[in-house]
Write a structure and sequence with these properties.
alpha/beta, TIM Barrel, eight-stranded parallel β-sheet, two-stranded antiparallel sheet, 10 strands, 43% helix, globular, binds NADP nicotinamide-adenine-dinucleotide phosphate, AKR
């Protein structure tokens, strides 16, 4: 598995498997297929309600804990220093691990600066190796970075050929912050997957359109966490490292950017809805 060196010197696999919306009972089989296919990175979150199952799947895999890069996310209702501190400990217990490889603050609402202080402390205490944020707009990201001792190692955002996040990437590049794509396949959008360019490049390289899209992400310096519970998809999504797109082909994909997101809730709605979410994750998951 290829890795990328983060701005704290630690390495992260450029490909992982995402388990959003995967019920706990399906996490074990999906991760067993993924580990078999060579994945060594898993992306979950408190709100996915499957962290216990992820922890079990890692233990059942027979892989040493250090061989698996484990990411999870704290929800914004657990922001603020005191709440975040307690939520980190509960999360570790729930997953059944001594440390997380990457902890992300899932949303930009609430007292995110207080949460970030708890994140930095968790790194110092050895509970977390790398820290980052998800779904922050540039203004809140700049506010957090301006007050932080530790610059985020990773920023996880929606990113795919229709929404390439060029401005965010340019802002983060001098900080060495890696950009990790959620919805790397546009959440499986049929129109995106059927773009003639991906079929053309797929024919040239003997690859599927999905493999071409995922290859574009990693070759462009990004990290991807495609979601799937289909064993064939899981396997084929990992076959990205035996071909390379030319720079002209990369440029043609860059031209597909059209500022089109698949997640479209306005910020003021998100702020209200997300802050109203309940956080009794321990009770809710198996
Ligand atoms: N930070 C955040 O706020 C946030 C938000 C959303 C997601 N995420 C993370 O990002 C991960 C990925 O997001 P996502 O799963 O929603 O979107 P995605 O990876 O862009 O797309 C997943 C969809 O594509 C299909 N698919 C996967 N591989 C395929 C293949 N080889 N051929 C055809 N279809 C394929 C899947 O169906 P099958 O199951 O049939 O393969 C599924 O419907 C999540 O699991 C989560 O970890 C984070």
């Amino acid at each position: 598995m290829e890795t990328l060196t983060l701005n704290n010197g630690l390495r992260m696999p450029v490909l992982g498997i995402g388990v959003n919306h995967v019920p706990s009972a399906e996490v074990g089989p999906a991760l067993a297929h993924a580990f078999e296919a060579g994945y060594r990175s898993v992306d979950t979150a408190n709100t996915y309600l499957n962290e216990r199952a992820v922890g079990r799947a890692v233990r059942d895999s027979g892989l040493a804990r250090e061989e698996v890069f484990l990411t999870t996310k704290l929800w914004s209702t657990d922001s603020g220093y005191t709440r975040a501190r307690a939520a980190i400990d509960r999360t570790l217990k729930r997953i059944g691990t001594d440390y997380l490889d990457l902890l992300l603050l899932h949303q930009q609402y609430g007292d995110y600066n207080g949460a970030w202080r708890a994140f930095q402390e968790a790194v110092a205490a050895g509970k977390v190796r790398s820290i980052g944020v998800s779904n922050f707009n540039p203004r809140r990201l700049a506010d957090l970075i301006g007050r932080a001792r530790t610059v985020p190692a990773v920023v996880q955002v929606e990113r795919h050929p229709y929404f390439q996040q060029r401005e965010l990437r340019a802002f983060l590049e001098p900080l060495g912050t890696a950009v990790e794509a959620w919805f790397p396949l546009g959440h499986g959008d049929a129109g995106l997957l059927a773009e003639p360019l991906f079929a053309e490049l797929g024919r040239k390289y003997g690859k599927s359109p999905v493999q071409v899209i995922l290859r574009w992400h990693v070759q462009d310096g990004g990290i991807v966490i495609p979601g799937s519970t289909d064993p064939d998809h899981i396997r084929s999504n990992a076959a990205l490292f035996d071909f390379a797109l030319t720079s002209e082909e990369m440029d043609r994909i860059a031209l597909m950017d059209r500022n089109r997101r698949f997640h479209n809730l306005p910020e003021f709605v998100e702020g209200i809805v997300f802050q109203a979410m309940r956080t009794d994750y321990d009770r809710k998951q198996r």
